[in-house]
Amino acid sequence: MPQLDIFCRKDGKDLRFGYTTGSCAAAASKAAARMLLEGSREESVELMTPKGILLNLPVEEITAGEGFVSCAVRKDSGDDPDITNGILIFSKVEFSKTPGITLEGGFGVGRVTKPGLECPVGAPAINRVPREMITAAVRAMQEESGNSAGLKVTISIPEGERLAKRTFNPRLGIVGGLSVLGTSGIVEPMSEAALVDTIRVEMKQLAASGRKMAVITPGNYGEDFMKEVLHADLSGAVKCSNFVGETLDMAGEFGFQKVLLIGHIGKFVKLAAGIMNTHSRYADGRMEVMGVHAALCGANRELLAKLMDCITTDDALDVLEQAGLLEETLSSILRKIDFHLKARSHGDYQVEAVIFSNKRGLLGMTAGAEGMLREFLAEGLE
Length: 382
Description:
Blueprint (H helix, E strand, L loop, with lengths): L6 E4 L2 E4 L1 E2 L1 H18 L5 E5 L5 E5 L1 E6 L2 E7 L13 E8 L5 E5 L2 E2 L1 E2 L15 H18 L5 E6 L3 H5 L4 H4 L1 E2 L1 E2 L7 E2 L4 H17 L4 E5 L2 H10 L8 E2 L4 H10 L4 E7 H4 L17 H11 L4 H8 L4 H10 L3 H20 L4 E8 L3 E5 L3 H11 L3
Parallel strand pairs: 9-12, 10-14, 16-17, 16-18, 18-19
Antiparallel strand pairs: 1-2, 3-15, 4-5, 6-7, 7-8, 8-12, 11-13, 19-20
Helix pairs in contact: 1-2, 5-7, 9-10, 9-12, 10-11
């Protein structure tokens, strides 16, 4: 299998980069289009990824027939664990009476059946960036060959249907196969230990600066929310990624007196179940948490079924609002978040939380968060 000889250093080890299913689909499409339009045979294909890394990938399983060419590129996940590592991603490019480039999902590519995802209901689960990569690669071959004939591109993954059962796709309403993913075209190996070490350094530096309050957010969404809604700069906050529990432990270790967590409900609703690592590979439970608290607030079985069928927390919030239970359910969830945060902090410091959604803005906060937030807005982070 071809390997990308680019590495990063994490946990004292050299970890190798890989490339995404989206890159494989685009590379296979480029090779098939070139062979169809120029009548050539391509043993390898070059593809420039959105990250700016040029790939040179072997082309496998070449099949040509009347008006079509099909070929495959093999996925390489590098040193990042991935169930798709080593599988073949196929692209069949054929002449079409429809002008331009038409993109379809074939066998093993999932199809979206529920709203709330990047792809619309009924569409193949080929995300926006891979779709753009595929279309751009095929269009480049049209321009290179001088042949602007309409082309239909069908992406298929023979192992997709089997492997999808080991992913979250069925739960998300993606049926029949895998999603074609990737925003940079490159798979960068991630080390959890390295991420936690980075957080520890930031927390230690913040404590060393004399700060007694740590403002913590999982990532960019928190920063955007503070800037757009509260007109405050959160760039000095500590980003905890999914490691809420570990970061809270560090707050106690480094002697902080106050901790203010600011996060999207999609992650922070899990805190109401005591889930302190919010990555989906460890636990999801978003709809289960929202369903339990809705039930405590009077939701009937029919409403609970609707909640359990939601894909995103925004969808669930819409359902609760329509039922007149939104504010009461959020208050119940926040009380439980407060309970679990207090339990994790062992009373060593005050900890509060603010939750929001991109669609609705501020959703609520724990009992003592308003005063802490006011203090933060008054003093800011240096």
